[in-house]
Design a protein that fits this description.
homodimer, alpha/beta, eight-stranded mixed beta sheet, eight-stranded parallel barrel, 34 helices, 34 strands
């Protein structure tokens, strides 16, 4: 699909005069002044920059540096990928401050200052943007570094890493040739790992790399450190618009960010020897939420080695043995930061010659279970109020809680276990193996479930990771790229499964004598790290205690009731388990499909050509419907049950094949040809706007009679057993008061007659769905004859926006996608997922106001799928609905959103 | 389709204490007091009763009598078809007044008072309800009448007529057996006409009739005149609900009436001999509107003989010779009544022994031409103001003006004329012959055009008459049943075509040696009374001068502009002829279907799978579109032309057969299979709500480029020739401000560029259709980027009401039809014909208010089919639109309605 490029709307640029670059070091951070709150600072400094400023001013050991703010990145793009003179000026000023703080100069031949250059957007995008380390090295300063540290191997290893990173990241050369040179060197030396390469060989590698650079770029590798700095800064800015970063933002629905900040920071070295190391840790266990210190580190390594997952790291608890001083300091930092941020933190640290340096601090990603455990624990620890804890939970946290586990009934001993890896993200997944992202995406597009199996993942794999049900890697730890990304999505992930022998070229993986080909089934248990052959049955998990506690807090706060949509006694029971306070929508027509007997009865009704024949067919359906209602009423035990009378157009029930037609012909005695003719007659050009909903009962009032009889007889029967019952009969697709009045009058006469004849005291209500725009516009009239309204926002959205849900796939994605993603960004979200508050919402609000203007007692709810979507539920609260109703599975999300709406209310009133 | 019977809603009954029965006679009429205005009096007394009261109090010679008011009829039905005691009491009191006025007694054996009993509803329903004459005759009083008049023949003729009418009308016996007895008597006597039967034989006939009555009813024919009176009154009330009356009201859309009045009036006799007669006349010629006295009469006849059309009557102008005194009096009456009613009147009179009596006076039905001529003449005669004249015209009057005539280019000499009859209603019609109403309706239902041919028509034939294109009868005059009914509908009608020999049984008609069978084609010229064999070409007629004058008056009064929908230069020229002040809707896609070359180019665009290929196909369409626009702009000569960009979903343009697919494959080099696949891909579940309108230009912006280029290049070219040009580019199906803004920005950049490059000064506007409910709801936002709104009320109705126009036929008729007609009466009119003011109209009003709130200069119009429907146009005026646009043919109707809206405005402000 082509799209028109419209003029780029200029983003807010860095105001001239305003400070653009912010120094941090020596316990002071200029960046703290850019805004009052952490959140606002992040929008200017980026997450990493804000964290560095925060840690610095909190007195933590942060190597000095400066942050180039996000507005500079916006400006960079406005100027056509150029740095402004003002930015450059401030960078140089701040560089001078760093040099002063460290007593070293960038490029100094004797004792050079080396810096890292890292990206940092307002939201974490792990591994998506570029980092360059060891900047400042050149042919001369590398010698100074070697001399000053008395460690030539360290100096040349740093230099070759810098040349590699700079050449690929800043200058766009491909990675493989230099990796090949490195491997060749190891091969020549007969060594296996990088640390085994001696200084001289590293020096030789540096020469090879520079020669390669010159061959490719036609110029010498830049020796001027300031030139290196500009190149690195621009590389970071440029990485904001790289494909992988754009894909990540699209997948994560990150739309509000304008660019990235750049952090230039004095290098510290975890790779200086055995008293050095580097690590990544979480202040609590990100998988279970336990209040234990959790992380990985590597001795004698740079940070990238841990994150990339190339070497399998050590558990943090062992650091106390290896570097006890640093470990103690780190524990103190952990406490201080949790108290400060009131949240579990994700930290990066480096120990250089036993001295601890903090390099990063941010809110840590965590598993759904951990999310609830941490929130509830922090309330108990008085770090948070209940309201703060609730406000922090997202709908996705709940969704992910319900991710499946391997059926507990399966005897694990009977399963064929392929291997056990590191349990990076819990949950289970089953699917066909894909060995690369493209294959994973292709299989998913065909509707297959996929397990992505990789040696290690990199940001290029994000699309395939998202498409997969689960991820399995041969290398890496719990903080590797695969683990971090998968955890963010709550997607089952096993890493460091080192026994896997993967051959990408042949598409085959072996473990001992077992062979797995692309397309074969695997099942992962992310909770145990086990990998099984074949497709195992998955089940919904048990709900953890912290979740139950937090949801009770939500229930205590919220004022909006939450019901579920349920069509069967089974659904109804499930709805109650999920916390539903009633049923907001029972679709009676689903009952017609249940068995062949029922299908034939409804078909008989449809092909009947006389009232008598139609009534006879309906009489066959009556006991089925009554029986279903008895089950539902019994399950709901006095909670209200809204039953919608038949809604879809009749052609949805007609036989779809010859066998069906013949069977119906046999039963009815109507010829097959006549039946086919009748079915064809039912075809509609726009069935959405056709002969359906209450229009069916206007033309065939005997259908209403049958359904109301079934409902009321069921209610009477259940009530007789001493069970409370409260049916709400709902008439769909109303567009006019008189239309509703005719049916309400008919239904009430019938229902009251049945109740009186049975000497029962059953109470019931009669109301309508508001799903046609006209009904919302005339809600004041309609409310005169309705006891309740239930907004059917699925259809209301279709009609109000003129969008057929079935067809909108052709163009709606273009409307929703941003310009950068090839769309036009007309809507912020798919209006069938999140209620279009501006348009459809306006009509809903108007409908409620008008309805209550003539009927102040009017009960109002929503039963479209929006009833289980967080932003929509909050809107429903705001406009004064009595309840929302959604699928049982989404009931907890609605409960949470309803509580959050109350909290937001209070906040806005403060 | 079954329908539920709902409780009958009780009509307003005659208030006890209020007067129910109203005397008139001797220059005084009690009925004048029931209400102040003629219109209100009609609602209580009925049209006939009000006319009799009016004429009586005006001093005209009206035989004394009394009117039983319409509320008594309502009461009659509420009581289960019974007369209340109060009504009976007042009838007897008033009968006594009549007896006193006449000095005679009902049933008196020597000199009996005889009365007629006639129906009279508030609106004329000619021939639909019952009349009984000569009531009061019995075996004794007939002798008294014979003695008193010294005319036994007259007395027994009157008695036998009374027995016939009473037996059939009041007692429900069938007509044929008594007609057979009458024929048998004539046969026995060897005479041909009724007047030739001598008194003795008539007396014998009376005995035969009474014997027949006794045989059938098991009782003697009622001899008590009071019993006769009750029977007759109940017969009239009962006739209100007779099938034929209900059919007539449905056809005429009469819904507001509650029942009929009954007029009991002293009999006067046109059948007393050669100095007596009876007639029906119009104060002006109802066909041409000429200010001449016009009518028919028969000497020695009763009124029913004239109306039934059994005897062919004489022209009124000859009455001066036969009964000069009565004629002079009648001419005076004519003048007096026209002055009084300020309208052409339809009169019934009887001359008894040279004395004139007036029996009825009502506003006369007239041809469309006459409608305009009379209205304009009366303004010139100072009887009416221009505003009164305009207010009196109906949309149907205009529609009927445009009924066809036989193509004037046909040489009449070459046509095969079958016969010439009386030119009862002008206009021409062509169709297949049907000899009975059922056949006419059946053929029409199949889509055939029908000419109904009958010896004479009766109220039972109304359904078939309505279904037919034209009506031809062998008997009857211009005031016969066929002529009056057809004239009311403006339907071509020829009566009194006595040469026709029709055999109903064989379904064959002969004229001399020519034979016409049922199903053969006939063409009628209602203007000349000629009947031609075969199907002749019909053409639109010339517009009469009075019509032109009246429309100019409308134009001077109205404030709402009227435009036309036109897609071609031909349409545009026609629109101007019809008085359009611009084009409100040019559908550009219609241009794509025009030639194979164009069709192929658009198809090529659709199957193109690259932007380049799509642009190449569009480039082929560009010159065609430009050429069309040049034609339209030239025709409109500076009047605004609103051009809608492509609107329908692309699948409407795809090839529909193998030949089309192959041709397209040949041109594009794309395989036929691929083309078919692409076409199938375009299928939509609900195309109305699919990928269409401006959604196409959001996904394919190059289509917008092509269309805007064609429009602006055409405008520049036309402007260069010195012709003024004002295009308004209209973007359809907008649902969001940003969506519109993207396209407006794109179009404006392109258009301004073209205009600047051509150094032209062409002005244009950019606006949108409001047809999606969301657009109306967010009109304040959308108006910020639109210069005009055009409400597309066809689609807006579909979406607001959730009604697919293509599918609504299954149930909408039930919604619109009244309960009596098997419907439920939810809507007063089909919302696709007359704008649903309550619902859709509310949204339109809201849209205008919101739109003007942010853009006070916003130009607002309507371009749905409602723009040519009278009540909708008046609504558009009321809510402040700038213009309406409709099909050229309906432009005059919109002009009239717009003027009437202003007049109604002024009236309501008084």
């Amino acid at each position: 699909m082509a799209k028109k490029t419209s003029k780029k709307i200029a983003p807010k640029s860095a105001k001239s005069g305003g400070k653009r670059v912010h120094f941090f070091g020596n316990g002071k951070a200029e960046g703290m002044a850019v805004a009052k709150t952490e959140g606002e600072r992040k929008m200017i400094l980026g997450g990493k920059g804000a964290g560095l400023a925060d840690m610095t001013s909190a007195g933590l050991p942060v190597p000095p540096g400066f942050t180039i703010s996000i507005p500079c990145c916006e400006e960079y793009y406005i100027l056509g990928r150029k740095l402004s003179e003002q930015t450059k000026k401030e960078v140089l000023e701040n560089l001078a401050k760093v040099e002063a703080a460290m007593g070293k100069k960038l490029g100094d031949a004797n004792d050079p200052l080396l810096v890292s250059v890292r990206s940092g957007a307002a939201r974490s995008m792990p591994g998506m943007m570029e980092t360059i380390l060891n900047l400042g090295l050149n042919d001369k300063s590398v010698q100074g570094l070697a001399g000053k540290t008395d460690n030539p191997r360290f100096a040349y290893d740093s230099y070759r890493r810098f040349i590699q990173m700079y050449s690929t990241t800043a200058m766009g050369l491909s990675k493989e040739p230099m990796e090949d040179l490195l491997h060749a060197m190891k091969h020549k030396l007969g060594v296996k790992t990088d640390p085994e390469i001696p200084a001289e060989s590293l020096k030789e590698l540096c020469e090879q790399f520079k020669a390669f650079y010159k061959e490719k770029k036609g110029a010498d590798f830049p020796q001027n450190p300031i030139d290196q700095l500009w190149g690195a800064i621009m590389a970071v800015f440029g990485s904001w618009e790289a494909d992988k970063a754009q894909t990540y933002r699209r997948v994560e629905k990150i739309t509000e960010l304008k660019g990235t900040g750049v952090n230039v920071q004095t290098m510290v070295y975890g790779n200086k020897g055995d008293k050095s190391g580097t690590g990544v840790c979480f202040t609590r266990d990100p998988n279970t939420g336990e209040n234990t210190f959790y992380g990985d580190y590597l001795i004698n390594a740079q940070g990238e080695d841990v994150v990339a997952g190339i070497r399998t790291p050590l558990k943090l608890s062992t650091l106390d043995d290896k570097l006890p001083k640093a470990y103690k300091e780190l524990c103190a930092v952990r406490k201080q930061l949790e108290k400060h941020y009131k949240d579990m933190q994700d930290l990066e640290f480096t120990v250089e010659d036993e001295k601890l340096y903090m390099l990063q601090c941010r809110s840590g990603k965590r598993s759904p279970v951990a999310t609830f455990k941490i929130a509830v624990d922090m309330v108990n620890e008085k770090l948070l109020t209940k309201e703060e804890a609730i406000a922090r939970i997202t709908p996705e946290d709940i969704e992910r809680l319900f991710y499946p586990v391997i059926d507990p009934k399966l005897d694990r001993k009977t399963l064929t276990k392929l291997a056990t890896g590191i349990d990076a993200v819990p949950g289970a997944a089953s699917g066909r193996v894909a060995f690369n992202a493209a294959d994973a995406e292709a299989r998913a597009a065909k509707g297959e479930k996929v397990i992505l199996v990789r040696k290690e993942t990199s940001p290029e794999d994000v699309g395939g990771m998202h498409a997969a049900q689960g991820i399995l890697t041969a290398t890496g730890g719990k903080t590797s790229h695969a683990a971090v990304v998968a955890r963010g999505w709550g997607k089952c992930c096993i890493v460091g499964c080192e026994v896997l022998r993967i051959n990408y070229e042949t598409g085959v993986m072996t473990v001992g004598d077992k062979t797995v080909k692309a397309g074969d089934f695997l099942t992962l248990d992310g909770g145990t790290g086990e990998v099984f052959l074949g497709e195992l049955t998955l089940k919904a998990p048990e709900q953890p205690p912290a979740y139950q506690i937090l949801m009770k807090w939500c229930d205590a706060i919220r004022t909006l009731k939450v019901r579920a949509n349920a069509d069967t006694p089974y659904d109804a029971e499930n709805a109650i388990k999920m916390g539903a306070e009633g049923i907001g929508l029972t679709r009676t027509e689903h009952m017609f499909f249940d068995t062949e007997e029922r299908r034939l009865a409804i078909q008989e009704m449809i092909v009947a050509d006389t009232l008598v024949a139609r009534k006879a067919a309906l009489a066959k359906l009556l006991p089925f419907q009554r029986e279903d209602f008895v089950g539902i009423f019994t399950a709901m035990d006095g909670k209200p049950v809204t039953i919608r009378l038949v809604d879809p157009p009749l052609h949805e029930f007609t036989p779809k094949d010859d066998a069906g037609v013949n069977k119906l012909s046999q039963i009815t005695g109507i010829s097959a040809a006549d039946i086919r003719h009748r079915c064809e007659q039912l075809h509609e050009s726009n069935p959405m706007l056709g002969h359906r909903g209450c229009r069916l009962c206007i033309t065939y009032p005997e259908i209403l009679d049958m359904q109301v009889t079934a409902i009321i007889e069921a209610a009477i029967a259940v009530a007789k057993k001493g069970i409370k019952v409260f049916p709400e009969i709902m008439i769909p697709l109303t567009m006019d008061k008189k239309e509703l009045q005719i049916q309400v009058t008919q239904a009430r006469a019938l229902a009251d007659g049945l109740i009186k004849a049975a000497k029962s005291k059953v109470k019931y209500m009669l109301g309508t769905m508001i799903e046609v725009p006209r009904a919302a516009l005339l809600a004041d009239k309609i409310a005169e004859v309705a006891e309740f309204f239930s907004f059917g926002t699925n259809d209301l959205t279709q009609m109000t926006m003129g969008l057929s849900r079935d067809d909108a796939g052709r163009f709606l994605p273009v409307y929703v996608a941003t310009e950068k993603d090839g769309g036009v960004g007309i809507f912020k979200a798919d209006p069938f997922q999140a209620l279009d508050q501006d348009g459809v919402g306006l009509l809903v609000k108007l409908g409620i106001e008008k309805g209550r203007s003539t009927n102040p007692k009017l009960k109002v709810g929503i039963c479209g799928e929006h009833g289980g979507e967080s932003s929509s539920v909050k809107f429903c609260h705001k406009i004064g609905m009595n309840y929302v109703s959604c699928s049982p599975y989404r009931v907890p999300i609605a409960r949470l959103a309803a509580a959050q709406a109350v909290i937001a209310d209070k906040k806005s009133k403060k």
